[in-house]
Input
Amino acid sequence: MRDLFGPKRVTPAGSILAALLAPAVATLVALPLRSFGSIISTSLYLFAVVAAAALGGIPSGLAAAALSFLGLNFFFTPPLNTFRVAKVEDWVALLVFLAVASIVGLLLARALEERGRATRREQETRLLNYFSSKLLSGEALERTLDDFVHALLDPFALASCEIHVGTEEVPFDAAAMQEGAEPGLSTIVPIVVGNLPFGTLTAIRRASLEPLSEADLHLLEACAKQVALAVERARLDARVREALVESETSQSRAALFSSVTHDLRTPLASIKAGVTSLLDQSATYDAGQQRDLLATILEETDRLNRLVGNILDLAKVRAGALVPVKEPTPVEEVIEAVLHRMEPAMRSVRVRTVIRPDLPEVPMDPVQVDQVLTNLLENAARFSPAGAEIVVSASLWHRSVQVRVVDQGPGIPQEDRERSFEPFVRRGDHGGRSGSGLGLAIARAIVLAHGGRIWIEGAPSGGTAVVFELPISDAEPIKQEPGP
Output
């Protein structure tokens, strides 16, 4: 039976058998050749010692040397068939043979043992290096542990190998089986880092094989430590992800609180100022002034309503409740309705529409697409200088209707366009009104819920073009990063 990665594991009976058989075979071969002198017999006995040392190790080699010495004395040294030695030079030859045979057997057995140990160390290092490379690869724990159990089957002659991890952060089981192998003795090694148990590694040997040797157990424990490191890494990664999620949640809450406190106060302050002015009995306002104050109150009320609507829509997106109720609707009707409703808010700019004729109806939720256009137009008006032109166009593009809102504002750098769709990301202050940073995020969520896509381009005028597409046939919601 071979030890793992190394030389043969010889039982005491096997060692004795090798020590007896090798000299006996050498004697049987040398006896018919006795008439040719003692050189042949001496060479055969020396070969027997080498064979015994190779097969049975140091004890077998030394025993074979002693038996060969006796056989050479009894069968091939005059007087024959007796242990007496007549000549002094024969005694010297026999003693020299015994010394040489013993040294040869000892050195050969040691050399073979060292080679076996070196081979074992090399293959142990190779196995542990494989485990280490898997740890450094950054692969998922599931893939890593699955590779580990398969890598242990052949080196340890296992019928099956199982890894059970029972930590709260990364509960996982992995198993591998050798096809056609009958299970035998099993060995369970704990997976532990420090004093913290993570699970167990179970190695089941093939049937009829001996239990793992002590050296094998040490190597299996080293492999279990590598498994523990993989589990610990995955556990720490899970904690880091949780911490990042908590940090992002805290930042979102802080941003939402900042947005609410700032953007709600501004329209409320304007509304309060207008109402206070109208209720002031000491002040006298003509009909035009009263109308201007009421128009301001109405405009700020609409602005406040849109802000609250965006916050509610963001909550729906995060709760997965933003589900469009689609019905075939002409895109031009939605555009006209939005422009008519937003006419007071667009007084500082000029709006031009370019609607291609014969556009097909689009399955959409009119209320939600109205919200998309409202947010885009509000952004365009906010970042366009007074008197600038905003162009709203709609055309058929492949199997979608493409709507484009182009302004003449400062534009958005290409590296910041994708980030502009994130909640609470503001494009900067313009005229003291920077917006809540929710408009584009809500627009993107609605467009993707319709199975479309939305992105930002540069405009020939140097401003910004926000483009979205809605498929003309019903489509499933998609997840897509903004981009052309």
